[in-house]
């Protein structure tokens, strides 16, 4: 992409996003999971009772397990162990959980399974910015630069061009193809 095209794209996106939300998050993901996406508009709303804390963001057992898995991924780089820890949480359809499982499989080099988990995360929450970022990096690693650009544009719509997720994927896209990207 030429500098002029990139500038025009950013200018158009900036105008389109003027006044839009800007979310600051770390490119490595968040150690705090976000609440599950709302079921409104899906046709089959499910209500959880106060007794059922299995999907509550306030459940201390879930949060402790999530934090352990997060630490296992980002501080110990033990992706296989993290996958087991995340699956043991019993919430594979929570976007944060599915995204980290996808990330872990990607780091292990299992791109097919990683893709399944990224798509599962986006099905759970189509606006999950970190999944768009990580899946965009996945696309780039697979040589799908056009798809990575699509993911970048989606991040711009959701979180703005100043977000860590946008800057991370944009920086990766600036590198020439075949430079051995490692994320």
TrEMBL record:
Signal peptide per UniProt: 1-27
SUPFAM superfamilies hit by this protein: TPR-like
PROSITE patterns per the UniProt record, alphabetical: TPR (PS50005)
Placement of TPR repeats on the sequence: 95-128
Domain of life: Bacteria
Keywords: Signal, TPR repeat
Record flagged with keyword Lipoprotein: no
Segments of this protein annotated with the region Disordered: 28-56
InterPro entries: TPR-like_helical_dom_sf, TPR_rpt
A family per Pfam: TPR_8
Protein name: Uncharacterized protein
Annotated source species: Bradyrhizobium macuxiense
């Amino acid at each position: 992409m030429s500098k002029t095209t990139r500038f025009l794209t950013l200018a158009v996106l900036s105008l389109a996003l003027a006044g839009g939300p800007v979310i600051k998050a770390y490119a490595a993901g968040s150690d705090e999971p976000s609440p599950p996406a709302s079921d409104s508009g899906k046709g089959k709303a499910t209500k959880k009772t106060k007794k059922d804390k299995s999907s509550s963001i306030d459940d201390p057992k879930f949060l402790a397990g999530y934090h352990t898995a997060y630490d296992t991924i980002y501080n110990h780089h033990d992706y296989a162990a993290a996958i087991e820890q995340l699956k043991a949480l019993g919430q594979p359809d929570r976007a944060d959980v599915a995204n980290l499982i996808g990330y872990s499989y990607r780091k292990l080099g299992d791109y097919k399974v990683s893709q399944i988990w990224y798509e599962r995360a986006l099905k759970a929450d189509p606006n999950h910015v970190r999944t768009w970022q990580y899946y965009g990096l996945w696309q780039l690693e697979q040589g799908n630069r056009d798809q990575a650009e699509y993911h970048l544009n989606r991040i711009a719509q959701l979180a703005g061009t100043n977000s860590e997720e946008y800057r991370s994927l944009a920086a990766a896209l600036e590198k020439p193809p075949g430079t051995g990207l490692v994320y």
